[in-house]
Amino acid sequence: MKLWDGRFSTETAKSAWDLNASIAFDQRLALQDIRGSIAWANVLNSAGVLSVSEVEKINHTLKTIAKEFKTNDFDFKETDEDIHTAVERRLGELIGDLAGKLHTGRSRNDQVATDFRLWLLDHIPILFEKLTELQVVLVKKAELDIDLIIPGYTHLQQAQPILLSHWWLSHFWSLSRDIERLLQIKERTAVMPLGSGALAGTTIDVDREDLAKELGFDFPSQNSLDAVSDRDFAVEFLFFATLTSVHLSKLAEGIILFSSQEFGFIELSDAFSTGSSLLPQKKNPDVFELARGKTGKMIGNLTGLLATLKALPSAYDKDLQEDKVPVFNAFDTLMSLLPVISGALETLSLNHEKIKASLGGNMMAVSLADYLVKKGIPFREAHKLVGEAVKIANNKELDLNELSLAEFREVSKEFDSDLSDVFDFEKAVSQSTAIGGTAPLAVQNQIVSAKKKLQEALHIK
Amino acid sequence: MKLWDGRFSTETAKSAWDLNASIAFDQRLALQDIRGSIAWANVLNSAGVLSVSEVEKINHTLKTIAKEFKTNDFDFKETDEDIHTAVERRLGELIGDLAGKLHTGRSRNDQVATDFRLWLLDHIPILFEKLTELQVVLVKKAELDIDLIIPGYTHLQQAQPILLSHWWLSHFWSLSRDIERLLQIKERTAVMPLGSGALAGTTIDVDREDLAKELGFDFPSQNSLDAVSDRDFAVEFLFFATLTSVHLSKLAEGIILFSSQEFGFIELSDAFSTGSSLLPQKKNPDVFELARGKTGKMIGNLTGLLATLKALPSAYDKDLQEDKVPVFNAFDTLMSLLPVISGALETLSLNHEKIKASLGGNMMAVSLADYLVKKGIPFREAHKLVGEAVKIANNKELDLNELSLAEFREVSKEFDSDLSDVFDFEKAVSQSTAIGGTAPLAVQNQIVSAKKKLQEALHIK
Amino acid sequence: MKLWDGRFSTETAKSAWDLNASIAFDQRLALQDIRGSIAWANVLNSAGVLSVSEVEKINHTLKTIAKEFKTNDFDFKETDEDIHTAVERRLGELIGDLAGKLHTGRSRNDQVATDFRLWLLDHIPILFEKLTELQVVLVKKAELDIDLIIPGYTHLQQAQPILLSHWWLSHFWSLSRDIERLLQIKERTAVMPLGSGALAGTTIDVDREDLAKELGFDFPSQNSLDAVSDRDFAVEFLFFATLTSVHLSKLAEGIILFSSQEFGFIELSDAFSTGSSLLPQKKNPDVFELARGKTGKMIGNLTGLLATLKALPSAYDKDLQEDKVPVFNAFDTLMSLLPVISGALETLSLNHEKIKASLGGNMMAVSLADYLVKKGIPFREAHKLVGEAVKIANNKELDLNELSLAEFREVSKEFDSDLSDVFDFEKAVSQSTAIGGTAPLAVQNQIVSAKKKLQEALHIK
Amino acid sequence: MKLWDGRFSTETAKSAWDLNASIAFDQRLALQDIRGSIAWANVLNSAGVLSVSEVEKINHTLKTIAKEFKTNDFDFKETDEDIHTAVERRLGELIGDLAGKLHTGRSRNDQVATDFRLWLLDHIPILFEKLTELQVVLVKKAELDIDLIIPGYTHLQQAQPILLSHWWLSHFWSLSRDIERLLQIKERTAVMPLGSGALAGTTIDVDREDLAKELGFDFPSQNSLDAVSDRDFAVEFLFFATLTSVHLSKLAEGIILFSSQEFGFIELSDAFSTGSSLLPQKKNPDVFELARGKTGKMIGNLTGLLATLKALPSAYDKDLQEDKVPVFNAFDTLMSLLPVISGALETLSLNHEKIKASLGGNMMAVSLADYLVKKGIPFREAHKLVGEAVKIANNKELDLNELSLAEFREVSKEFDSDLSDVFDFEKAVSQSTAIGGTAPLAVQNQIVSAKKKLQEALHIK
Predict the structure, then answer these.
(1) Which residues of D are tagged catalytic?
(2) How far off is chain C from D311, nearest CA to CA, in Å?
(3) Which end of chain D has fewer CB within 10 Å, C or N?
(4) Looking at beta carbons, which residues of chain C come within 8 Å of A304?
(5) CB contact under 8 A, C279 and B159
(6) What is the value of pTM for the model shown?
(7) Residue A406 half-sphere exposure, CB side, CA atoms within 13 Å?
(8) Do residues C103 and D370 lie in contact, with contact meaning Cβ atoms separated by under 8 Å?
(9) Structure ipTM
(10) Do C381 and D203 make contact, defined as CB atoms within 8 angstroms?
(11) Which candidate, B117, B103, B208, B230, places its Cα nearest to that of A432?
(12) Is C358 an active-site residue?
């Protein structure tokens, strides 16, 4: 069945039909489409286009069709161009010509925009839940590992000792921003296009504010031309998903590094690792590599839709049909990644000995400079003096903490017997007490803040 | 001058230095860098690292240096690796070793993140202003052209008549969403990294909430590892700019089409057009083509930074230095495009005759279907009948409104003498009265809503 | 069945398994996988790992399995992690433990790279054929429309008259470059990874040059580390597909414009158009809009894989699994677009009257300038004088050819009675006789060149 | 000076002028523009538009102007819209009205496309040289380190021992493919647009094949519409540059990892490292991080231009002006990266002890499996048995080579006293003798092949 062949003389070419049809992917909008149709039938009733008995018949049947979708009993036909056509075709099979009244004053242009927004409004909360679950895991890890000092890196070089807790929490905060963005996108998605017709608005007498509320939207759209072509919500969702994925790739990169033999801080559980078909000893962090690798696909989804939208001229163009596949893919990707990452983090084990052994004495350099600053040397000069000590140590293939006091005093007479106090990782860590620092007290406060964020999130949910 | 060569034995290779140095582009952060340094000097004073006279000397001199930047009298040296080094080098020239105390407890990692955020916070309001100026122009045009009916298009095919006002306003609403996003990004940018040190926090005793307020931030960052590597604000800004640019490309595409000889609705003013070096008659909409073409660059800026961020492992990596050029470019591009677009829209002239002549009678098809629906025919059937009438008209190389009543009655006996009323563009337009529709009354209401939005924006400013 | 669980104690988590498994998409490599396995079994026989009867048994059974795939009788199991595992599992079902010998000296790393390259080598010729078919259509159109003059545009403004043939052929040449690229990519794809093992090469004694020939490759790879991670061929294919798609989008944009009511040059056949569910008169160029819109997806495919590949460290990483979906998508997209475009071009009809009526006299401006140049006026001055004539004509709302000689002579006394000869579109077109120009003779030569290209292509095929 | 204001009444708005002008970046085309003009003047002479004395005067003066550019004495004016205008303006200053004859039969559309291609043809050889220089370094390193065994990784897990030489060479081959692509792009760039006019070809009588040869092109373009809008060469160059950059990012990632304290295989020389402003001990691999990070920008350049080109309708559109900045940026980026990488690789030092210590006994697992295979156990079973041995070793926190024969025999009685031979890294490495394997002999052959490639390259140069 076609909704539009009155003026056409020739059959659509098979190849053109196949290219054009969107049913393969827009069938995911089935329940949203039916929900929208039920609301629209009520509008048509209020406007006098449908009688009470007609609307009851239509809506009862639409609910039956919804059940068919839910139980996978809906029988798609080759001639179903898209989900809207499929539902209207089925409605016609069940109630005859009356089905033909439902599309009065409505177009697939406003219909699909409505369906797609409803779908996203339905699915954002599910994603929200998976994101907060990962956050919960990160906070748990932070609580567990509060006493554990690991090397902190910049440029992948050992820089300063930090708490492992602090590292876990750093990933908590990036996810918090993702969640904040997601909720703001949800608000911009909750604007209803229905009642915009093909492009000019509908000629049906309808209170679109009421209709919006009935369908769970916050507001009706303000301009019908804009409403049928606005895909900001889709591209914003892709951006959210991409940036979230970038954050996950950062976490993944860390875990992959820490799981290597050379770092050796972490061992993933067998349940979240895979092996090699050739090399019997291998235990690979595939799930984290996939988290990292799929970021590329996410970037591609975003870039692709932006490029598709570029320079589209008027209200609705068929190019917009390209909006759904990337959004579904982005959603599915996050939904498959997040629980696996949560599970893998929860079940990994730490190699305390390897971690301890890895703490390099050179990471005390800035503490040494601080030591000199406290003796009145300007920081820039102190930095230089410690740099010289590092040079001496390097030449002797030693770490800073392995130099003798005498050797230090060759660099500066300010170095004295109290110097040995400096080479204490726990003391070093405990110095960074300001908000956001890695001192145990500051990290404890950070955990409190993080839990508060989670509480707020639960409240939103 | 290098801030870091204590431990190094060999000079940096010239090629490596040139690759590494960021002064060519990060000098745009000069004033923000100085503002940050003044605040940090105050912190060092409170913490007892600097005496009162020292902090006064430093801050007085920093202000002098700021003036040098403002008057373009600052003299960059080849050895200035970046803006932070340049400022500290100059400070040293003016006040000697005391300058070396300023960097105590601070790293270029938290410093550059602070500078960059401050820069964006300074410049978002400027962009906001240019965006609202374009919105004001669009509302003005909408008020002026409230009586003018143009063809409305979907798939670039004439679909239904609409008000030109409605078309102008459609672009208003997409910009409104851009502005909303920009303001939300501003909030996420207003988080202060200063006090995060290189990665682990600072050992200086500092109230970071006070420091944040002093610098005009809303909050201090919660995690130092996250703070020195978080570039969400930059990539979010790029996303905002890209989506805004996509919206401008849509507007541009419309203007380019309407300015073609074939459409002929619009003539750009000479002040915003350009000619051809070979073809003397040409008047080209270059500025709109550039608005459209630069969308590609914007997409590239966004994609590029996302790809750069992908899979970066730890706190700070040098890759992050790639964040500034795209943000500056995106800002500059919008700042150069927006006023030109505003100016070009304000000064264009309309060709009323061409517009009127272009209104095709076939756009009445849905009104004809509505006519049948009112006579009790289900819409789907009505659609089919009108489709047949279109087919007949096409075969006779006529428009729908050129068919005789007799010809219509061959399709359906429901067509009657009241049919002629249907072929009235003004009447057709006036039917779409629901919120967001193209009826003059609805568009008047839309203008009121738009003005209210602008009032709110002025209030924010 | 897993190929790797010897060292694992716990079952893989369901969520991790689902994330990790690639069978959903890599099953498209089934026949290539089997072909590779047959060749490898022969290698193992030569190397003494398999006896003659063993290799015969294995290869006979592999061919049986290939048949199962061809007839859709292969029964996938939930435990089939990927196509390699599925085939080996099935082999084991049919011949028992002997199946376990086949993977000797081979890894899924070199296996999948081999399969994927074989797949591309199998499918490039199919794409090549569709591309040349479209080229054939373009040449046919060029031959048919050799007498038809249309406006030529720059900046979407009428610039100079051209032959429609010339326009059709412009798309021929961009496709020629695409084909040239495709064939070069084919050569770079024809490098065999098999025998690279997991990363270090194989310990099996194998003549890889012979093996390459047997499998239809040109050469064996030169470095096993490179061979298992090299995805240049995949990303190059995506680039080819994207640029081809950009070319199709340019053609599509032209057709969409020419099909609008305002241009009205072209009417698509019903077989390659679609209608509107609401607006009965609409006949939309959906297939060309999809050709245009899908370019975004293609850009996304390319960008995505490039971002995935960025900064991957060592020989094989699981991220590489993300290579297949975009390549399959790019191939499928072109395969669905190309025949539809060919069909739509072949069946469209031209509106000669509309085309003729659209030829604007202002397009004669450069001919007028040439006229003055021939009278000895420097071109730059001639350009200026004609520009003034245009200004006068515009003010009178006339086209250049509607000005009187007297009016022209107000601009320059060089204009004379022979001026009327200039305003002849056919004469104007016939002036551009140099290679690549729009003069009928030059276009005839172009058609000859194009046909020669096609002949060469047929020869390649 | 404008080349086109005859028909315009109003001055161009300042903001529009600034947006439109391209002189800021297209001045890099100055010498190519002049070369093209000299050739065109000769054409005009042959065609009778310029006398011999005129062409001599013009060409002599153009050479004078070229000198001004070379010595940085050319004085740009605010009114120079682009490089073509600047040159023609200067020509006019020096020789008066005669300058106005030069633009006869030529447009900036074919002119800029010609200039840009000439620029690329001039610069590709320079890039080619830098690429081969890096290849030379890689081969040198491979020769030096032929005896050194390092762990080979997949999934960043130790997989099998390999020669460091083999690792160096893996990067050689990816660059070889880049070079091959670059040379093919050069051929497609060597097609001359000059003589295509604005879009329709030129009316000047010109032998474009001769003209092409004179300018150093291989062929004239075949279709003027295509020629003025074809930017395939630019986007192809960006693709080449991006994929090259991806390859450099892979190398960079390896060096960054190997330079970390945890791996510790490599120490960069001071000349190619940088330090930290806060942490005195730091020596950071900034140049490799920039190589990695700039890959993002390269991806963005490519994506951006592709998105710009998408759906451009007709011959020349101003959007095409966006082609130059990304190409210049891509060229400059590679030109700054390549010598730094070459230098850094040449000067780095290896830590043999750390490398030796890092070789994990578990990497012998596949050799163990091979051992069992040789005793007649099917590989799949052998893999499983070794996996069990790994499990036992892991539980005892041992490496495979630390298990006793008795422990091995608990897994399989096939393990025997000859087992100890297996645990020899050199022997393991020496097994992979097939082409492309990591055995010293195979790597020696690889070096020979690589040198042959370089010889061919020198020949091309």
Answers:
(1) 155, 276
(2) 5
(3) C
(4) 296-301, 303-304
(5) yes
(6) 0.97
(7) 0
(8) no
(9) 0.97
(10) no
(11) B208
(12) no
